[in-house]
Amino acid sequence: MTIKPKTLRILGTRGVPAAHGGFETFAEYLSLYLVANGWRVVVYCQDEGTGSLFEDIWQGVERVRIPVSETGTKGSIIFDWKSIQHACQHNDLCLTLGYNTAIFSARLRLNGVPNLFNMDGIEWHRGKWGPLTKFWFWLNDWAGCFIGNHLVADHPRIKEHLRTRVSDKKITMIAYGADLVTDASLKPLKNFDLVPGKYLTVIARAEPENSILEIVKGFSVKPRGLKLLVIGNYESNNVYHQRVKSVASDEVQFAGAIYDKHVLHSLRFHSLAYIHGHQVGGTNPSLVEALGAGNAVIAHDNQFNRWVAGQGAKYFSDAQGFAGCIDRLEENPALLEALRGHARERFKEAFYWSDILGQYQKLLESFQPKLSGQT
User: Rounded distance, CA 311 to CA 226, Å?
Assistant: First the structure.
């Protein structure tokens, strides 16, 4: 007679180990944390190619690997559907990260499979999407709220949004986590010809809603004796990307996309300040990671960023306002140090991975299926 372990299946990401974005990083941290605490964790992973799904184990985490030949949105939709098909064969607790294909999860509900949703941001508010895509996200936002057994909001404002759809009792607010960075190698800086404390860092997709144009324009209004390191892909056939580059001074350095987390830790840690231009979303992973690195932050002024960074940031709304924030930091070293101190305090208050993951475990334990405890 053996005791059946607590089991969680994680859907909605491209899989582990993390190689893409915030949800993948979260899935990696949560799965390893739960395994270390005696759970059985199964993560659905999207592979390129054709063939049948197969299973393997990574650092104690079981992976169901699903080959998908299609790319982009179509490939993600096919992967999500196949993941749900497989999860329906089991009566294990599921956690779905994101609601982009929430309507498919009706099959889990019909099969009696318990499923919690991390509802991410209000995706259909993003200006980059066309009317049809916005409608799809809006529809799945509603679907996730009603189909899911419980919802997780990563920000108080996201919880407020969800409360317009479902009862407060169906929602738990748990933020996103990050690592505390107290030291970082100087070696990656040499590859970009950077001097510690003599550059600002921006890490974001090059989209209008991330204020990249305002940031580059505000920085470039005059010589500063600093570099602005812009991390992300900028394509020659993208009008917005080329507009950003056209307003950049010689002190703006476009570094391309960087995915190595150790390099990113170093670039953040040694920068004079971190720039966060995101205008929409919940608790953004990049901003939390900047707080964990003790960065002074200059952030776009909105309700999402103000809750996350609090007093650890100066805020701007346009290019002129951003330029003024840089001027004040350059003129006042004491302000810079105060912001760094506030950033660390805010991080320790709300964003340690150990605290975040402990909150998730407590929530998940309350939704474990009432199955026979013996096999």
Answer: 24
Based on the fold, state whether residues 191 and 279 are members of the same structural domain. yes
The token pair at 68 is 């998908």
Query: What is the DSSP pairing of strand 54-58 with strand 61-68?
Result: antiparallel
Side by side, which strands form the sheet with 115-118? Answer: 54-58, 61-68, 40-48, 7-11, 93-97, 115-118, 150-153, 171-173
Residue 272: which of 310, 252, 298, 308 has the closest Cα?
298
| 160/211 same-domain check | no
Q: pTM above the 0.85 mark? A: yes
Tokens of 265: 């830790």
Distance CA 336, CA 345 (A): 14
pLDDT at 128 over 90: no
Name which of 175, 198, 371 is nearest 285 in CA terms. 175
Q: Does one domain contain both 163 and 22?
A: yes
Q: Give the amino acid at 25.
A: T
192 with 242, same domain: the answer is yes
